[in-house]
Design a protein that fits this description.
Blueprint lengths: L1 H5 L6 H11 L2 H7 L6 H13 L6 H25 L10 H9 L6 H7 L9 H7 L6 H4 L22 E3 L3 E3 L5 H4 L13 H58 L9 H10 L9 H5 L1 H30 L14 E5 L7 H13 L3 E6 L1 H10 L4 E4 L6 H6 L7 E4 L7 H17 L3 E3 L2 H8 L10 E3 L3 H12 L8 H11 L4 E4 L4 E4 L4 E4 L11 H18 L2 H4 L4 H24 L5 H6 L1 H9 L2
Parallel strand pairs: 3-4, 3-6, 4-5, 6-7, 7-8, 8-9
Antiparallel strand pairs: 1-2, 9-10, 10-11
Helix pairs in contact: 4-5, 5-7, 12-14, 14-24, 15-22, 19-20, 20-21, 22-24, 24-26
Organism: Oncorhynchus kisutch (Coho salmon)
Pfam family, one: Carb_kinase
GO molecular function, one term: ATP binding
């Protein structure tokens, strides 16, 4: 590191000549010859130079001498090749020649190749410094002289490599691995016993064929037993159906078989007590009632979507100038708290978009301002969490045609208690009540709040449906047969209309099941259920306001539920066609007008 820090120090001509005089003294040259540990020599040179008035370190002296020797050797090499033309490139050429001529003769090219460091090599640290990349002589010296860069080329003569082959024979070049490696003998395969192989093959084929025939015989025997069991089961079912038809014909010989179902349903209802799940006696009748409901389900399957859709069109009121505001529907939404403000808005605005004239939202005080800011069309009442909430809402019930309970309601005990009392007051007004979302949580905790009310409609998703079913039957839900489970839940709730939302919306009132297979999309965004519940509130009012001829004696709740499910799916389809994965409930609400017209007014 010291050599690097001192190479840039400039040397004057006087100082350089003084250094050469000291370095050329006989005792110094004698000490340098053949001595590779020469740091003490350059310390002596620096000391003598200091006595002459020039303060230099031993390392600076060594580097300067090394630089001068390189310049001299390069100049001398150039003189040998170019007839003395390089004599003037080294200012101290004569002094260096005088000093070095007294030393043993060394080939300049050899000195250049070796770096001219033989006699200047010091201890271990200095040897590492001498191995630094060679610097330009002009930079290493004082700048007094320069020389053209000479490229040193080293050539190596080809050296033959003796290779011993076999028994000591030497060759100047290897002929390759194949010449010295003996060839391996090829393997010879023995003749295969074809006769024995064929015999063994035939034996195995015969064994496999025999095993196949045995397995086939066993399979046929199992198939025969299965067919016999199915035949016996079919005969038993026919006997049961025959007994059922004979009993119906004896009870009412004029009415058709399908009209005899309500008495069976009423019998089931008579065994149930309000607020209590299915009793022991109703469990005993469960098998019989299920046979009757299965027969009704078959009738509903024959009815199909094409038979229900015209009924939905029948209940849609015509638009005339003779009507006054509010005549086509005044819908109330019970829900909306600080955490959930979007759900009641979606339900209320969907009701207006479907065709209701007025939409009221009864929410908490914290949610009122937010919901009002969504749309000026909504009438918002911030009373749901007030001390006299039930009295405040009850004043509006005579003006409402239907009620939707649950969107954004939350699970606060106070809000659930108020919602329960509002449901009781609404039942006394005999208006349709749609229960969704957190309203279904209330029903699962207290089924009696809506149990047995024929104008009640439940709209659970699969998780909410599972909670309701297990709350009523205290047993796990059989997920393999949703239709049967939905009918059982409807009967347990007093033949309420249940809308099980899913891949296919399943609608049942305990007597029949209708599947809504209207095409939708794979997009399921939050708020779609609120669109369905809001539109269902309007359609339920229209269905119950229509005559029995318009619904052809079909349960008005079922007709309204089918219309709401079809409309929601059509809105989802149209919005998804425009927005794809980015579809939201707001996009679906924008499609209500065109979807309604396409389904019910075309």
């Amino acid at each position: 590191m010291l050599a690097i820090s001192t190479r840039g120090f400039l040397w004057s001509d006087v100082e350089t000549r003084t250094l050469l005089n000291i370095w050329g003294e006989q005792d110094i040259q004698t000490a340098l010859d053949g001595n590779f540990r020469n740091s003490h020599v350059y310390r002596d040179v620096a000391r003598r130079l200091g006595e002459m008035g020039f303060e230099r370190t031993p390392e600076q002296c060594r580097v300067r001498i090394k630089s001068l020797k390189r310049q001299f050797l390069l100049a001398k090499e150039g003189n040998l090749r170019n007839n003395g033309q390089y004599h003037k490139i080294c200012k101290f050429y004569d002094a260096m020649e005088r000093i070095l001529s007294s030393r043993p003769q060394i080939d300049p090219q050899e000195l250049l190749d070796s770096g001219a460091v033989g006699d200047e090599t010091m201890d271990g640290t200095e040897e590492e410094e001498d191995t630094d990349p060679p610097q330009h002589p002009y930079l290493e010296s004082t700048g007094e002289c320069s020389y053209p860069e000479t490229q040193v080329k080293m050539e190596y003569p080809p050296i033959p490599i003796p290779v011993t082959v076999g028994n000591g024979y030497s060759s100047q070049s290897a002929s390759g691995p194949s010449s010295s490696r003996p060839k391996r003998p090829k393997k010879r395969h023995a003749d295969l016993p074809l006769d024995s192989l064929m015999e063994r093959f035939l034996e195995q084929s015969a064994e496999a064929e025999q095993s196949f025939y045995q397995l086939e015989e066993q399979r046929l025997q199992v198939e025969d037993r299965r067919r016999e069991a199915e035949h016996a089961r079919e005969l038993h079912m026919l006997q049961v159906l025959g007994q059922m038809f004979s009993s119906i014909a004896t009870r009412n010989p004029v009415a058709p078989a399908t009209t005899a179902m309500p008495p069976a349903r009423n019998t089931m209802e008579s065994t149930m007590q309000p607020g209590v799940p299915m009793s022991a006696s109703s469990h005993m009748m469960r098998g019989r009632s299920f046979i009757e409901r299965s027969f009704s389900l078959g009738t509903a399957a024959r009815t199909g979507m094409d038979d229900i859709l015209p009924l939905v069109k029948n209940i849609v009121p015509p638009l005339t100038s003779k009507k006054h505001k509010g005549q086509d529907g005044r819908i109330g939404i019970i829900g909306g708290c600080q955490e959930y403000t979007g759900a009641p808005y979606f339900a209320a605005i969907s009701a207006l978009k479907v065709g209701a004239d007025l939409s009221h939202v009864f929410c908490t005080k914290d949610a009122a301002i937010v919901i009002k800011s969504y749309s000026p069309e909504l009438i918002v009442h911030p009373v749901l969490d007030s001390p006299n909430a039930v009295e405040e809402i009850e004043k509006w019930l005579p003006r409402l045609h239907s009620l939707v309970v649950g969107p954004g309601l939350g699970r606060d005990d106070k809000l659930l208690k108020n919602a329960k009392e509002v449901i009781e007051k609404s039942k006394a007004r005999d208006i349709p009540i749609v229960i969704d979302a957190d309203g279904l949580w209330l029903v699962a905790q207290q089924p009696s709040v809506i149990q047995g009310y024929q104008k009640g409609i439940l709209t659970p998703n699969y998780m909410e449906f599972t909670r309701l079913y297990e709350a009523m039957y205290h047993e796990p839900l059989d997920s393999s047969d949703h239709q049967r489970s939905a009918m059982e839940l409807s009967v347990a709730m007093g033949n309420l209309t249940v809308v099980l939302k899913g891949e296919e919306d399943l609608i049942t009132d305990g007597n029949k099941v209708i599947l809504c297979r209207q095409e939708g999309s794979g997009r399921r965004c939050g708020g779609q259920g609120d669109l369905l519940s809001g539109s269902l509130g309007v359609l339920a009012h229209w269905a119950y306001a229509s005559s029995a001829d318009m619904t052809k004696s079909v349960n008005p709740s079922v007709v309204a539920a089918f219309g709401a499910c079809s409309l929601t799916r059509q809105c989802n389809k149209q919005a998804f066609h425009k927005h794809g994965r980015a579809t939201t409930t707001t996009d679906m609400i924008q499609e209500i007008s065109s979807a309604f017209k396409k389904l019910f007014e075309s």
